[in-house]
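HUMAN: Mind making up another protein with tokenized structure?

ASSISTANT:
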Amino acid sequence: MAKVELKKPIVEEIANSVKDAQSVVLVNYSGLTVEQDTILRKELREAGVQYKVYKNTMMNFAFKGTACEPLCQHLEGTNALAISATDATAPARILAKYAKQYPVLELIAGVVEGNYNDKAGIEALASIPSRDELLGKLLGSIQSPISNLARVLNQVAEAGGAEAAIAAKSTEA
């Protein structure tokens, strides 16, 4: 079997992964220890992010004709891909957190919802809270006025109830 035939399934795997992905982040992992890499992979896996190391030439072939084609210019050195099909900010958020913790981990670039982002763009994206956090904040802000109204009505009812009890006692005497 020719080498090209052996590499074709890997290129197809990469192309299929990035085709429908919400977010693809390219990172240079050179210098990470095995322990650090294991911790990083575990958190990415728990967030539903696929993190894999591929050869640059394979990624180059897979990116051709996709939204990830601008990433081809960065394919030098020891690179890994973090791909999320559901959460657009998860790979950037987790990788940026570990890049601060382990300075040897370097964010390179990424494609989020079809838009190319350089290192600064990925770092900015990492500061955006997750979808669940944003929904929680929205729910809290919607719920706050209702809770305040309920408290005020409760206080009015309690005050009205106390006045009625005082009035009842004064009529008895």
Observations:
- The chain has a mean pLDDT of 82.
- The chain is about 60% helix and 15% strand.
- The first strand starts at residue 23 and ends at 28.
